[in-house]
Amino acid sequence: VSRVESSVLHGLLLFAAATLLLSAFMTYVICSRHYNLHHISFFRICAIGYLFNSISLITLNVGKSFAALGWMPQVIVNSHASVRIIHFLLFFVRTGELHTTVFTALNRASAILMPTRYLQ
Fold first, then answer.
1. How far apart are CA 11 and CA 18, in angstroms?
2. Other Cβ atoms within 10 Å of 72 Cβ, number
């Protein structure tokens, strides 16, 4: 791995770590009983989306970035089973992210087209 590729991969790993921390914090806030957001459908969809994004970041970094930087044992890198597992996880996560996006759009569209009126 060249110097440029190595620095780009290290930058991506730092970005992924920051994103994972933010995602974990947001999931904690949504699921916390203190804030009472877990009953609202939009926030449930967001929490599921954060879970899919976390799995995606972990899979991409462990499966691709760590292997490119030489941080994984050669047995795992050369194994066909690990490649298949990584590709399955990436396909599964991308499908989940797509569904999360569609459900978020439907949630917002239904909120606009059929607003709920609350009595004061």
1. 11
2. 15
H-helix or E-strand containing 51? helix 41-60
Whole-structure pTM value: 0.80
Is residue 72 within 8 A of residue 9, CB to CB? The reply is no
Strands (E) across the chain are located at: none
Domain ranges of the chain: 3-113
Give the Cβ contact number of residue 100 at 10 Å.
Answer: 19
Give per-residue pLDDT as tens, 26-70.
999 999 988 888 888 999 999 999 999 999 999 888 888 888 888
Residue in this structure with the two tokens 């996560």, named with its chain if needed: 93
Asked if residue 43 lies in contact with residue 30, where contact means CB atoms within 8 angstroms, the answer is yes
Q: Is 68 exposed, middle or buried (0-12, 13-18, 19+ CB in 10 A)?
A: middle
Q: What is the pLDDT of residues 76-115, one digit of tens each?
A: 878 888 888 888 998 999 999 999 999 999 999 998 888 8
Which two structure tokens, joined as six digits, stand for 68? 């490119």
Are 97 and 28 a contacting pair, CB within 8 Å?
Answer: no
